[in-house]
């Protein structure tokens, strides 16, 4: 039987995969099924009404390569009644003009498919030039913003603050 939450991620150098494991461990055993989109794309996604997606940005504002390979699968998704939360990885110093762009692109596609986003995250505490992952008013990211290159020391605390918010929005807390 599927767990209540499906977590789909892609990862080239392992950072997003590692964060996905940490998020799953915090959520708890039996609560989340992990899928690397490099294996079977988004196969199985229809089994879940609560979804988490992990996506790093690569190559000056592009999707990570495994996400890019399966991006067309997003075209046929219909997700009314589904809630989703995103976490994105990027490098705000090295790629300051494109920080977390891919997370913003994925957010828009999922919202267009009818799903409801949760787990937005404040912009304070980051230093970059531009990002497609910001809300229209620029005050928040559309998901958890992580940076294993320039702010690695912040990651655990950010995850620990974000996961309970997402579980509450999913109706799974307490
Ligand atoms: C060649 C290259 C291009 C990158 N381009 C971006 C980018 O445009 N925007 C960004 O926020 N991060 C960028 N990054 C940083 C990666 O997103 C970051 O290292 C991330 O943690 C990688 O995650 P992964 O190990 O799961 O693939 C880039 C890194 C490299 C090496």
From TrEMBL:
<keyword id="KW-0288">FMN</keyword>
<dbReference type="InterPro" id="IPR029039">
    <property type="entry name" value="Flavoprotein-like_sf"/>
</dbReference>
<dbReference type="Pfam" id="PF00258">
    <property type="entry name" value="Flavodoxin_1"/>
</dbReference>
<comment type="similarity">
    <text>Belongs to the flavodoxin family.</text>
</comment>
<dbReference type="InterPro" id="IPR010086">
    <property type="entry name" value="Flavodoxin_lc"/>
</dbReference>
<dbReference type="InterPro" id="IPR001094">
    <property type="entry name" value="Flavdoxin-like"/>
</dbReference>
<keyword id="KW-0285">Flavoprotein</keyword>
<keyword id="KW-0813">Transport</keyword>
<comment type="function">
    <text>Low-potential electron donor to a number of redox enzymes.</text>
</comment>
<dbReference type="InterPro" id="IPR050619">
    <property type="entry name" value="Flavodoxin"/>
</dbReference>
<keyword id="KW-0249">Electron transport</keyword>
<keyword id="KW-0535">Nitrogen fixation</keyword>
<dbReference type="InterPro" id="IPR008254">
    <property type="entry name" value="Flavodoxin/NO_synth"/>
</dbReference>
<protein>
    <recommendedName>
        <fullName>Flavodoxin</fullName>
    </recommendedName>
</protein>
<feature type="domain" description="Flavodoxin-like">
    <location>
        <begin position="5"/>
        <end position="167"/>
    </location>
</feature>
<dbReference type="InterPro" id="IPR001226">
    <property type="entry name" value="Flavodoxin_CS"/>
</dbReference>
